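Task: complex structure prediction.
Instruction: return structure tokens for all chains below.
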Amino acid sequence: MSGGHGVHLLYRPGTSPVHRLPPQVKIVAALLGVICVVATPRTEFWAFGLYLVLLAGIWAVAAVPVGHFVRRAVIEVPFVVIALVMPFLGAGPRFTFLGLSLSEPGALAGWNILAKGTIGVLASLTLAATTAPRELIVGLQRLRTPAVLTTIATLMLRYLEVIAAEARRMRTARISRGHNPRFLWQAGATARGIGSLFVRSYERGERVHLAMVSRGWTGRMPDGGAAAEPSTWLAGLVPVLCTASVLAVALWLP
Amino acid sequence: MSGVWTEEQRRRAGRTPSSARPSALHVERLAFAYPDGHQALFGIDLRVEPGERVALLGPNGAGKTTLVLHLNGVLSGGSGRVSVAGLPVSKSTLHEVRRRVGIVFQDPDDQLFMPTVGADVAFGPANFGLSGAELDARVRSALDAVGMAAHIDRSPMHLSGGQRRRVALATVLACDPEILVLDEPSANLEPVARRELAEVLLDLDRTMLMVTHDLPYALQLCPRSVLIDDGVIVADGPTRELLADADLLAAHRLELPYGFRLD
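Output:
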């Protein structure tokens, strides 16, 4: 999604092999990879280390600096807080760490959330960093996602900015007439502003639909993108094969 | 009624074809009432020949938009007939009619909904069955026609008002319509963008029906004007004559901007 003037929040344009991979391949790879991570038993600590190394390898190929992901992974913080609280609140056998009495099952559950959550977030960020938003939609379209969903996603990509700009203009107009939304009793004006924004957006929706119908729209977005060759699929799924191998070893190693 | 073109004048102006080529647009006794009972059109008769540029003038609520939405079958169900380049508008011809009638809506943000300019221009022709290299060529030539080819990969959000208006025009040109219908093309444009759009429109050399309140713009672009009020056509003739008739304009809540005078 581009915020402000063409600056992408999540996407980092590039020409690496990862960027050039067809979006449908990347979506499938990210999904299968995350499923493997989630299926890994939480006590196989080494496996999670390998997953992280694998992700770092993909970042190196994609030429996206680690800092890009670290800054954006902050979104995970609420879950990290929960994970850190669990060792204190859990029941069962306890152990002492740095003079603190901690619950063993609680610590393991916290670790489980922390490890799998972090790797899941990093995998999603990797997909988002190497695939432009509209490419993601093309990928979903090629994966036979229902047309209604991809149409909604396309419209959302475009109109989020239009509606945000409209909201900004309405806010400026309110403030210019002395509205100071710091005070609670002035929240009413903001609420009414949101209400009228909703009505305006609804009306705009009707006009957009009219304009689409006038250009021959019949309920399906025109097809985009191209089918990926079997060899491309294979190359794109190499990281998944690595992840699955690690999972297999973790599951069946005595 | 004043400023009405006789058949003879029209023939001399080369607007009535001697061949059998059908009118670009033919509206016969079109009447329409909205479901709430409000009667918007009371029997409109209008014929636009290929190559003509016609301004559709009238005060707010005169029925201009209602008429426009009948041209591509978005509204229907009243009495009368509409045909586009010989093809009558009906349920079975709707898809082809929508290709033949290209409507450029007033707010480009309503028209441009795809993430990039190129994808948006491709939307119409793709719906009408074009694909591959043919589609790319059509997108390219439509953007060339409005001077926006360099912006093909940009988001419509990051274009100026005038640029957005021209891209909206390109999205319709790409469908290769028989008649271009423009709803208030000069609204919200700065003077330079307004003039640039006029130059683009004049260069297109297409049949046009232009709904507008901008009377000087109608004079600049359209040799012929049709004045509609209360759901009927009250005048149809050369734009200059029509706009010079101050009494006629005043009777239908229209007036030239301050400082303008046509004699």
